[in-house]
Amino acid sequence: MKREMISVVIPCYRSEETIAGVVDRVEKTIIDDGRYDYEIICVNDYSPDNTLEKLREVASNNRKVKVISLSRNFGQHGALMAGFHYIQGDIVVCLDDDGETPPEEMFKLIDEMMDGGYDLVSARYEEDKRGIIRAIGSKISFAMSRILVGRPKDIQLNSFYTFRSFIIKEVVKYDNPYPFVHGLILRVTKNMANVDIERGRRITGDSGYTLRKLIGLWMNGFTAFSEKPLRLATYLGMISSFAGFLTAVVIIVKKIANPDMPMGYASMMTVMMFMFGIIMLVLGLLGEYIGRMYISINNAPQFVVKEEININEEDSDS
Fold this sequence. Notes:
Radius of gyration: 24 Å
Shape: elongated
Distance between the termini: 29 Å
Number of strands: 8
Number of domains: 2
């Protein structure tokens, strides 16, 4: 009887010192459990160090390790989307390349999904030990995904999660640039749960997520998966117009009551700066939407695969 297969997808960036150990831990965890066949798909996101050479070495010793190397850096979510096009398993597990997402805990997620009848189960961490930028970034991402793309209120979506393969069949239909994987998954299902897991410690180095990359990820979520920011801009325009009208009424009434009252330069400049600020905010938001629409219309690639290792023709749906 053929066993079900687990497909483990690992986006790799600046992980030459960690990825071999992470792959070994994934393999040992699945073999020790004994219930599933497996494949490990590592996506090199144009890492500037020797990550690709390390992946070649790992793959040469294990045919179950498949390597996809991208032609430039497309970001974590672009790398995940690339890996999703190659999975063959019934269950998908996504985790990081730095050891912070402990592979030894993956069956806590898988068993909760299978026993509870969920479509997706994500790790939930009680404490964020990754630094203030990543901690703030996670909180903003959680709030954004709940407000803009409908994440269930009590659910955390982190980078360590498992889900059923039917979700992939829908997610990979999205072929526009600027993918936001959590938003794509939430379009398919909200039947999900969390399992409490203690975050592992990064083996070496610092996170590849800078503040600039986090802001870029938030913008993907803002502009690619919800019209609510545009609606918010409309509300801001209405509120500022109403506030301006009330201010004008107050000034007129005061002038009538006290004709000698001097007209205030400071108050006028304050109102002008407020109104111009709202206008620039709305124009910037519209520009962001229009710019992304233009890039999508021009068929900008979501990712470009430069090299494949241990990939058979039937492994890819592209």
